[in-house]
Design goal:
The complex is a heterodimer of chains A (502) and B (115). Chain A is mainly alpha-helical and 502 residues long. Chain A is built from 20 helices and two strands. Classes of the chains: A mainly alpha (502), B mainly alpha (115).
Chain lengths: 502, 115
Amino acid sequence: MTDLLLVFPVLVPMLTAVLALLAYRSLHGQRTVSMVGAALVFAADIALLIEVVRNGIAATRIGNWPAPYGITFVADEFSALMLALTGLIGFAVALYSLAGIERESEAFGYHPVYHFLLMGVSGAFLTGDLFNLYVWFEVMLVASFVLMALGGERRQMQGAIKYVALNLISSILFLAAVGILYGMAGTLNMADLASKFSVSDSEYSRSVLRTTSMLFIVAFGIKAAAFPLFFWLPASYHLPAPAVSALFAGLLTKVGVYALIRVFTLIFVQDTGYTHTVILVIAGLTMATGVLGAVSQNEFRRILSFHIVSQIGYMIMGLGLFTPLGLAASVFYIAHHIIVKTNLFLVSGAVERIGHSSDLKVLGGLYRARPELSMLFLVPALSLAGLPPLSGFFAKLGLVKAGLIQEQYLIVGVALAVSLLTLFSMMKIWNEAFWKAKPERAGMLAYSDVHLRYQLTPIGLLAAVTLSIGILAGPVFGFAERAGNQLFQPADYIRVVLGGVR
Amino acid sequence: MQVVLAVVIGVLFSSGIYMMLRRNLLKLLIGLGLLSHSINLLIFASARLMRGRPPIVDTEGISTSGYADPLPQALILTAIVISFGVTAFAVGLAHRTHKLVGADDLDRISETERL
């Protein structure tokens, strides 16, 4: 059963996508298939999470080839958590898409591509093999290229070109690093690599390992939008349909962060004084540049895009500190961020739907027009800034505590200052779009009176999850701590993968 | 032979980067193609160059002398297929962009969308 649970997160989206393709002519059929598929994936991901929490790390060998030769699917608590979040976001955004996507684009294959993207993301979280990780990255990327360009507006194409070019370069660098690692160790199984590199430091040249690790940092840094490789993200994320932005914002960069954490807790741990310091410096610069970019923007989704960059800094800060507590805080932060950021983009889509624009100068008075939407904006916005008792507070608390224990006062200071600026720019959105009176100018459209049923349900769902993570912060952080410990001491992971089925 | 291969990889890689640094949309695509070729050769070289050896191990396990590693070739095959698909998409995207924007100069394409 465990074996099946490990392949369901990949198998179900694939079947859903194929069925949605078969129902290509009927929009209604595609929607039904898509919703049922998204719900099933979510259920399968939750089942896997429960299984991993109960019985520890799960692994299965695809095609029953023994471990270092064949491809292994592994789920430790971190992977399982990421999969559960993927399921949740996949479901919420699929629901939102029922009303949030233009009909033409939707009929043009939105649903199949959407599920192919989910398949790629899930595969990347599950695989225990570096080359296989590359393949899942490509599945995810090609699907995201299509979603990014869907609709085919002029502006969208301009964003898509940058997005495609930068992501392809990152894939190429990743592949180069994989090739060099294979040349050194003769294996690409991550657990096998970990055990080979940790045993002897004489056999493998330290300098080549260090160079390869930097290639990984650059490759995954582009995907995760870390400083200084983030500029493709704010140039493209505000252009596609809001539902697509929300999905990208929630999941895609986080796959890059996941890959960074996986590789730099498992394979490159011989030289932490060098590699993890580099990561820590990148983390600080990413936070600072991201938030400064956000402060200078005046468009709803652009502000949010820059905040993704800034938040990536927090996520890799825990990795840079490289203590169990730091990793736990990173895990918690990623979980909190995926939910909150997706939700903010969904809110921005709803605002755009009502106000016909996402320019803060045009918007205003939304609190009077739509109080329920405004309240639902405040939950993720304040959580992102880190106000108690919402999830973001505990995520930042964990990181700051881990930083103080390590006596890394500079990065802690940066994190706190950036947090303040985050609050500032969230308040800017609140003041401009929701609080101030609607500016009266000639030729401006009145707010439309659309029903937001399909939009408000997923937004409310995600806000509820944010609130409950905040209220249940103790148990959730306990879970993150166990995940952090598993990452910090990968002996169990290696044993389960190489020792075969437990 | 190894030296020749190393030089070829280096030249392909650097010309790929050079092409990508040009402002022309089509040259960007050519650059991407060259880069992926050079990486495929890199993976090929990482398996050590062997001539006339079987890609089979004996019953004892891996014999260190005389065994051509077939795995990198499988990896390259996968990478070629992926890069074929991705390049096809990128060409389509470039074509569409060119039609919509009416320019193939990357600076002019991004003119209307500045940060």
